[in-house]
Design goal:
About 30% of the residues lie in helices and about 25% in strands. It is an alpha/beta fold and about 400 residues long. The chain folds into 2 domains: about 120 residues, Rossmann fold, CATH 3.40.50; about 220 residues, Dihydrodipicolinate Reductase, domain 2 (2-Layer Sandwich). The protein has a 7-stranded parallel β-sheet with strand order 3-2-1-4-5-6-16, sandwiched between helices. The chain has a 7-stranded mixed β-sheet with strand order 10-11-7-14-15-17-18, with helices on one face. It has a two-stranded antiparallel ribbon with strand order 8-9. Helix 3 links the parallel strand 4 and strand 5. Helix 1 crosses helix 11, helix 3 runs parallel beside helix 4 and helix 6 packs across helix 11. It starts with a strand and ends in a 21-residue tail after the last strand. About 45% of the residues are buried.
C-alpha cells in the first residue's frame, strides 16, 4: 500500500498526535515505531498501518519507506536519529520535517540544503511549539522593526491538579535539565546552567508567574542567523514549569535517571533515560486533569529611530477528545498542520530550513485557530478571524541557504 505520510516515532506522545490528526484529516499514514504500544485506536483507521522499525538499522527502515512511496516523512523520534532520517528522506525523494535537533546535528542537516533544493524537495527542522510556533511568530513580527536588539522566548505551562504526568518528551527534558544552555548574549554565544537564576519575572498569559529557567534550544542559533541583518545581540530561550512537575523532573536529573550513559543490569547495558521514558508513558492521566500552555515571544528593537517592542503569545489548552495529550497538542498539531502544507505544496521554497525562513504565518496561524490554539498579537487574539487581508502582512523572504 502507498501512503501520503510516514510518521517515524509514531508511538511517542507527539507521534500519536501527528498521526491521529493526519488520519482524521483524511490522509493515509504509515505508523513507524519500535513497538505499537498505544496505537490501537490509530490502527482502527482503514488508511493506517503499522511497521516495526529500529532506527539503529537504517537499511531496513530505508526499504520499508521506499516500498511505502510516502510523499512526506514526519520524524517524531528522538533527535539522536534526525540526521540519518533526514538523509533517508533525501535519498528516497520525500519532503521531510522533524521536531528539532541540537546545534551540532542541525549544522550537519543544513549541509544537505543544496541536495534537497536540487531534487525539488523541502525539509524543515524544528516544528512544534518551540521550536515551531515561536519561529513563525518571529517571522510575523520581524518586518515591524528596523533593528532588533533582543529576543526573549519560551514556554510556560500549568495544570489544574498538582500531579505528575508524562511530559512532552523525556528525551527533551533530559536535554534541557542537564545540559548547559548556550545563549546569545552581547553578540556572543555563552553557556549558562539551566538552574542558574535568570532574573526574569514575567507574568505569563493564562498561566501567571512561575519559576523560570534558562533552556538549551536550537532557536538561539537559528534566530541569530535569521536576524543577523537586523543586528541582533541577545537571544534567550526560557522554560517554566509548575512547581510539582519541576521538582520531580529536577530530582530525576539529580539522581541520574535522565542519563544516556548505559549501566549494566543483569549483564545487559541499559540507559537510565530509556528506562524512565518507558516507565512514564505508562503513567495514567487522572480523570478531569487538564493543562494550559503559553508559548511566548518578546522582541525588542527600534522602528523609525524609536524603541519598539512586540509581544506574541500562543495559548493551548487540553482539548475535548484530546485529554490524553494535555497541552502537548501545541507541538503535535502544528507539526501535522505543517506536514499537510508541505503535502499540498503550499510552501514554494526548496531546500533545508528552520520554520522562520519559509512558513507563511497567516495561513499557519489560521489553521492553528481551527484547532482552537490561539495566537495573540500584542494582547489581541488574531487567528479566530485571521484572513489574508490582515494588516501588517509579513514580508516573504526568499532564501537559498542559511
Amino acid at each position: 500500500m502507498k501512503y501520503d505520510f510516514a510518521v517515524v516515532g509514531a508511538n511517542g506522545m507527539q507521534g500519536k498526535i501527528v498521526a491521529r490528526d493526519l488520519l482524521e484529516s483524511g490522509y493515509s499514514v504509515l505508523l513507524c515505531a519500535n513497538d505499537d504500544y498505544g496505537l490501537e485506536k490509530l490502527l482502527e483507521h482503514d488508511n493506517s498501518e503499522f511497521s516495526l522499525i529500529d532506527l539503529h538499522k537504517m537499511d531496513r527502515v530505508r526499504r520499508i519507506l521506499k516500498n511505502s512511496a510516502v510523499r512526506v516523512l514526519v520524524n517524531c523520534a528522538m533527535d539522536d536519529f534526525n540526521l540519518n532520517v533526514t538523509k533517508t528522506a533525501l535519498e528516497l525523494g520525500m519532503h521531510y520535517m522533524d521536531l528539532g535537533s541540537e546545534d551540532a546535528m542541525m549544522r550537519e542537516q543544513k549541509k544537505l540544503h543544496p541536495e534537497f533544493e536540487a531534487k525539488g524537495l523541502l525539509a524543515i527542522s524544528g516544528i512544534g511549539s518551540t521550536p515551531g510556533i515561536n519561529n513563525i511568530m518571529l517571522r510575523y513580527v520581524t518586518p515591524r522593526f528596523d533593528t532588533i536588539d533582543t529576543v526573549h522566548l519560551g514556554f510556560a505551562w500549568s495544570s489544574n491538579m498538582p500531579v505528575f504526568v508524562a511530559p512532552f518528551s523525556i528525551d527533551a527534558i533530559a536535554y534541557e535539565f542537564t545540559e548547559p544552555a548556550t545563549i546569545f548574549r552581547d553578540g556572543k554565544f555563552v553557556e549558562v546552567m539551566p538552574d542558574e537564576p535568570t532574573g526574569i519575572d514575567y507574568n505569563y498569559r493564562s498561566i501567571g508567574k512561575q519559576y523560570t529557567c534558562y533552556t538549551k534550544h536550537i532557536e538561539h542559533h537559528t534566530f541569530r542567523d535569521y536576524l543577523k541583518k537586523k543586528g541582533v545581540k541577545n537571544i534567550v530561550v526560557y522554560s517554566s514549569f509548575p512547581s510539582h512537575s519541576y521538582s520531580t523532573l529536577r530530582k530525576l536529573a539529580e539522581l541520574g535517571f535522565l542519563s544516556k550513559e548505559p549501566i549494566e543490569i543483569n549483564g545487559l547495558p541499559v540507559r537510565p533515560l530509556d528506562f524512565v521514558t518507558e516507565a512514564v508513558r505508562h503513567i495514567p492521566i487522572p480523570e478531569g486533569y487538564t493543562e494550559k500552555e503559553n508559548v511566548w515571544l518578546k522582541v525588542y528593537g527600534t522602528k523609525s529611530g524609536k524603541k519598539h517592542v512586540e509581544e506574541m503569545d500562543c495559548i493551548a489548552e487540553t482539548l475535548p477528545g484530546w485529554e490524553d495529550a494535555g497541552c502537548n497538542v501545541d507541538t503535535g498539531l502544528p507539526a501535522s498542520i505543517l506536514a499537510q502544507m508541505m503535502y499540498d505544496e503550499e510552501i514554494p521554497e526548496r531546500g533545508f530550513y528552520s520554520p522562520e525562513y519559509v512558513v507563511p504565518p497567516e495561513i499557519f496561524f489560521k489553521r492553528l485557530g481551527k484547532k482552537k490554539i490561539w495566537i495573540y498579537d500584542n494582547g489581541e487574539k488574531i487567528n479566530a478571524t485571521l484572513v489574508k487581508s490582515v494588516s501588517r502582512t509579513p514580508i516573504r523572504v526568499r532564501v537559498t541557504s542559511f
